[in-house]
Write a structure and sequence with these properties.
The complex is a heterodimer. Chain A is an alpha+beta fold. Chain A folds into two domains: 75 residues, Ubiquitin-like (UB roll), CATH 3.10.20; 70 residues, Orthogonal Bundle (DNA polymerase, domain 1), CATH 1.10.150. Chain A contains five helices and five strands, in the order ββαβββαααα. In chain A, strands 2-1-5-3-4 form a five-stranded mixed sheet, sandwiched between helices. In chain A, α3 crosses α4. The longest helix of chain A has 17 residues. Chain B is an alpha+beta fold. Chain B folds into three domains: 47 residues, Uridine Diphospho-n-acetylenolpyruvylglucosamine Reductase, domain 2 (2-Layer Sandwich); 115 residues, Uridine Diphospho-n-acetylenolpyruvylglucosamine Reductase, domain 3 (2-Layer Sandwich), CATH 3.30.465; 110 residues, CO dehydrogenase flavoprotein, C-terminal domain (Enolase-like, domain 1, 2-Layer Sandwich). In chain B, the strands form four sheets. In chain B, strands 4-5-10-6-7 form a five-stranded antiparallel sheet. In chain B, strands 11-12-13-14 form a four-stranded antiparallel sheet, sandwiched between helices. In chain B, α9 runs antiparallel to α10 and α10 runs antiparallel to α11. The longest helix of chain B has 25 residues. Chain B starts with a strand and ends with a helix. The chains are: A alpha+beta, B alpha+beta. Chains A and B meet through β4 of A and α2 and α6 of B. Bound molecules: flavin-adenine dinucleotide and FE2/S2 (inorganic) cluster (2 copies). Flavin-adenine dinucleotide (FAD) sits at the interface of chains B and A. Flavin-adenine dinucleotide sits at the interface of chains B and A.
């Protein structure tokens, strides 16, 4: 670690966590050091959404988010959506609709869908596009992804 | 990225004191979305970044003043501004602009001050806020000053801010009687940076253009107010013929530059067409309100 490294404490997936981070480290790099590989850096420029992480309830691009900025905050990654018990309705819907091929983009789409449905429980097509516009799927599973979002919304409305 | 010192002051005044008027390698960081890109690509290697994340919450509030002025804290996130009822009431054009500004994740993190201070001529908020007649409140070691948004930019990625000055608030005056539109023209894909941004605010009085503010961005080196074209419009009867003439005038007035999104001559043509469209739509809005 360099002389500039910072000691931070934050809540990671429900557990209080303390870490030493470099100021030039981003959030994806920090998570990988902690063996959480769901958020991954692909474009590295905020464009594709593969690195999506939820910080204090809002989706962020981990590739552009300084790791030191999570000090005092709450961080949730895709690994925590099932609470170690049941898959979330969004995860179930993605599987049922076959909303992926290679799966590289999937954790990002699932986390963005969680944010969408939290804010707009019955999203219009326009709102789905707005929230997911910053996520790219190179396998082009978009039609299935849209179906999965709608199916997840229905599941959550019924629950 | 290379190691650097990250200072995390708890007050704005401490933040200003940690900045350095002389050293270009010391900078404030608010959301970090623009700086992270610059640091990752090696364009910027800081010695020290002064984080604004912990300064007083006053600088991230959005409030309405007694005279109808909307005061937006420079540390408000773009999402916060997008979803603010106060902002929607005063200037619905801001919410509409946010929908096509980057993506939800960037808007969740990026702050208003960072968007303005970055000085990138392709950004959407500078043309929109300047067409609304907004000004930035700026604080430095020797006090405060006010800068109209249209006067904030001195060149390509350059602003008139001193290195130890911070944008603290943006004041948007009451928009009673005004109608505003923003056109972002992308030439490669819908989510690309614009080849041209046109923001237009106007007032129609008895069928004539009472007053107008017309801004151009992205196609020019910096945000530019089309002063001569505004003169063509002021006091004239709002009509297709007038908007046509204004489009021609804007084309002659704007100093557009070539880049990967189009040649200067192509963008000049875009200016002509989009100025006309913006005026048409804004004047429809003005007569309906
Ligand atoms: C994928 C992607 C797509 C994008 N698309 C768009 C788009 O379509 N339209 C658009 O307009 N923008 C777009 N942007 C740019 C985005 O809006 C900016 O990166 C963002 O607004 C910068 O804000 P920030 O708080 O993250 O700034 P930072 O990165 O923290 O800072 C940017 C600059 O401002 C300075 N600074 C920060 N705060 C202050 C302050 N209060 N006072 C003085 N100086 C300050 C910093 O020193 C730095 O020089 C996009 C960005 C990304 C990553
Ligand atoms: S890797 Fe972060 S958005 Fe693409
Ligand atoms: S499933 Fe392969 S990139 Fe989306």
């Amino acid at each position: 670690m360099s002389e500039h490294a910072k000691s931070i404490s934050f809540e990671l997936n429900g557990s209080k966590t303390e870490m030493l981070v470099e100021t030039h480290e981003n959030l994806v790099e920090l998570l990988i050091r902690m063996n959480l590989n769901g958020a991954r850096e692909s474009c590295g420029q905020g464009l594709c959404g593969c690195c999506t992480v939820i910080v204090d309830g809002s989706a962020v691009s981990g590739c552009l988010y300084p790791a030191a900025f999570v000090d005092g905050k709450t961080v949730t990654t895709v690994e925590h959506l099932d609470n170690n018990v049941h898959l979330s309705p969004v995860q179930e819907a993605f599987i049922e609709e076959g909303a992926f091929q290679c799966g590289f983009c999937t954790s990002g789409f699932i986390l963005m869908t969680h944010q969408l449905l939290e804010e707009k429980p019955k999203p219009t097509d326009e709102e789905i596009r707005d929230y997911l516009a910053g996520n790219l799927c190179r396998c082009a599973a978009y039609p299935e992804i849209i179906k999965a979002v709608k199916s997840a919304a229905n599941k959550m409305a019924r629950a | 990225m290379t190691p650097f010192e990250l200072a995390e002051p708890k007050t704005l005044n401490e933040a200003i004191a940690l900045l350095d008027a002389e050293d270009p390698d010391v900078r404030p960081i608010s959301g970090g979305t623009a700086l992270m890109l610059m640091m990752k690509s090696g364009v910027f290697r800081p010695n020290r970044l002064v984080s604004l994340q912990r300064v007083e919450a006053d600088y991230s509030r959005i409030q309405r003043g007694g005279d109808g002025t909307l005061r937006i804290g420079a540390l408000a996130s773009l999402s916060q501004i997008e979803h603010s009822g106060e902002v929607r009431q005063v200037a619905p054009v801001i919410e509409k602009t946010m929908r096509h500004l980057s993506n939800v994740r960037v808007r969740n993190v990026a702050r208003l001050g960072g968007n303005l201070a970055h000085g990138d001529p392709h950004m959407d908020l500078p043309p929109v806020l300047s067409s609304l007649g907004a000004k930035a409140i700026v604080a430095g070691p020797s006090g405060q000053r006010e800068i109209m948004i249209e006067e904030l930019f001195s060149g390509y990625y350059e602003t008139v801010l001193d290195r130890n000055e911070l944008i603290t608030f943006v004041d948007v005056p009451s928009q009673a009687g005004w109608s505003s539109v923003y056109f972002k023209c992308t030439t490669r894909s819908a989510d690309d940076w614009p080849a041209l941004g046109i923001a237009c605010s106007l007032r129609v009085e008895n069928g004539s253009i009472g007053d107008v503010r017309l801004m151009i961005s992205a196609a020019t080196e910096k945000l530019t107010r089309l002063v001569a074209t505004e003169k063509v419009l002021r006091g004239q009867q709002a009509s297709e013929a007038l908007f046509e003439r204004a489009g021609e005038s804007a084309m002659a007035e704007a100093e557009v530059i070539d880049d990967s999104r189009g040649s200067a001559s192509y963008k000049s043509e875009l200016v002509r067409v989009y100025v006309k469209r913006a005026l048409r739509q804004a004047s429809v809005g003005a007569t309906q309100s």
